[in-house]
Amino acid sequence: MSKPKKEIQIDKQTDEIKQDAALKEAEASKQAVEKQAVADKSAEEQQIQAAEEQVVAEKVSEEKAESEQVVETKAESEQAAEAKADEAVEAKADGTVEQAEEAKNGEAGEQAAEAKAEQAAEAKEGEAGEQAAEAKEGEEGEVAPRVEQADAASEAEKPEEETPLLRVINLKEWFPIKQSFNKAKSVYLKAVDGVSFDLKQGKTIGIVGESGCGKTTLGRTILRLYTPTDGQIIFEGKHIEKLKGEELRRMRPHFQMIFQDPYASLSPRLTVGEIVGEAVKTHKIVPKEDYKDYVVDIMLKCGLQPHYFERYPHEFSGGQRQRICIAKALALKPKLVICDEPVSALDVSIQAQVINLFKDLQESDNLAYIFISHDLSVVEHISDEVGVMYLGNMVEFGSKEAIFSNPMHPYTEALFSAVPIPDPDTKLKRIILQGDIPSPAHPPKGCKFHTRCSKCMDICSEVEPEFKDYGGGHFVACHLYQ
Question: Which residues of 30-60 are buried (b: 16+ CB within 10 A; e: fewer)?
Fold first, then answer.
């Protein structure tokens, strides 16, 4: 016999109530588990924080003990020095008394000796004249050796050549395209392939070349944003190509980079003050109480007003954003700044302002720059030395005057022939390069430029040219001069 409809409805309602109760109970248990997990996590964080505070306290106590020990050692050394000084004074006084007694006793003997000395002086007058003549001749004979000795001493006193701030030796950065257990079958894109140069403190090296030749990769590898495949990077006499972890982090403030795109290199969620001062806090450049004053001072130095401190990047023009990037790099007091096409996205008038800012900061802070650019006129204006890159190699390097007045490599000649001259009556002798740029993953044998060079010889396709100095620090890798 079937149940009445009313009882069926009551049963359904009862089942729904039970299901709701079960769901609520499951949610309550889930919330309890989550609360317990949060409580456990907070407890662990508190334990970690307590451990860190204990480590800091132990470190402070150790430093305090060391400072007290240094003070005690210094006090003991000062006491010892005072004791030695007192002994020296007493000894000197005793010696003076003894000398006075000896002088008194010897006065009588000296009076008797004076008479004998007068007699002997008359006998020696003749001999003295002869000795004087001989001495004069001897002095004249010794003049030349003394002059030679003085010259040798002056040469020895000449200061040694200035040690470069940065030395790059045969630097390579290869990116794997296809890897195999058999290394001979592995394929690498050779973005930087054996670059060498020196950079002195307070100087600027300009790096030029076609897009894709490895300029930016070279800068990033020097800064250790990439790990070098091979070669050496020596900064202030210290090898940094293999540094890792804390050692590399401590070196970071000494070299900074200004990126090409000021729109992409600034966080839109941070204010200008936070962008410039973020690394200052991380590396503890200044005390906390001086933080804001220091950041504002850096901003003023870069042409940014103090009221920009609370503004966001989207409120600024391209030139002002690039100034923010410069301030961000300079806030860490670096010695080397790598500028990756910092003015390529700016109009001409703003370019001039930023370039002048770079030169003013270099004079005031003695900065060294590696200036990467396609604009040869800008490179000529700001650089002391210029390097020309092609397909990962440095094909020519030298002083600005030597490179621009006497380009020796055929690629450099072709590159400079593309620079427009603002004179309608002057006809350009443009050198048109034939063919396409070879793949850096499969570069041609011998000289990498021989496939596009109008002066190519048989040896160029077989033997890689040596990067050689041809006088005055003008380095060229070309068989035309070898």
Answer: eeeeeeeeeeeeeeeeeeeeeeeeeeeeeee
